[in-house]
Amino acid sequence: MDPFFLAAWALEGGPPGRFLDAGTGSGIVALLLGRLGHRGLGLDIQPAWIDRARQSAARSGLDARLVFVQGDLRTAAPGGFDLALCNPPYFPVGAGPLPADPLKAAARHALFGDLDALLPALARMAPRVVLILPPRRAAEAEARLAAAGRPLRRRCRLGSALVLLEGQDGGGLLHDEAFEPRGADGAPHPRVVGWYAALGARLAQIGAVNRLPAAP
User: Fold this and answer.
1) 96 against 192, higher pLDDT
2) C-alpha distances in angstroms, 183 versus 1, 29, 132, 179?
3) Which residue from 155, 151, 156, 182 is spatially nearest to 168, judged by alpha carbons?
4) What is the CATH number of the domain that holds 164?
5) What are phi and psi of 22, to 5 degrees?
6) What are phi and psi of 107, to 5 degrees?
7) ∠ CA(107), CA(110), CA(91), 5° rounding?
8) Count of the separate structural domains present in the chain
9) Are 35 and 200 in contact (CB under 8 A)?
10) Which residues span the domain enclosing 199?
């Protein structure tokens, strides 16, 4: 559910003129935003992910709005975007065993840069930076965003599992909220239902192949 939360919550902060989906992986965040008419770029250091994301964009009729490029965020040329989104690896290198699949390993562990390298790079790319990550890493992320000139503007705590953060040029915390994504009966919170509706997605699509209906 992480990419759905990230995309929908980022849009609540304002629609981007052009976005960067950093560490795009299979491209689901970029695909969700592209489906709504936004233009952007998905960047990933691993070529295998870029190939898959391009195929998904073409099959979904979104390849005119979305560009997927292989590259290293840490050395990418700065600027050109209104919004930079990222679902960074949740574990530093050495925090637990690495998955055997190299794509899964890089998605879970910071093999290509941790927050100290990624967040300043994101700040160079756009005046707004939106992240989703575990709460145990929130304080570090907030401090690094502030040091990079993107002090915290919004925060949303999703139970004990996840937190959404937005750092923005000019900063100053304006919005801070918390809720459980699912109730005791397992039903999704109305806010989550609204997020999926805003993206034109169904909750049943979680885990589905990254193929969306053809763009209008």
Assistant:
1) 192
2) 15, 25, 21, 10
3) 151
4) 3.40.50.150
5) -85, 135
6) -70, -30
7) 85
8) 1
9) yes
10) 2-205
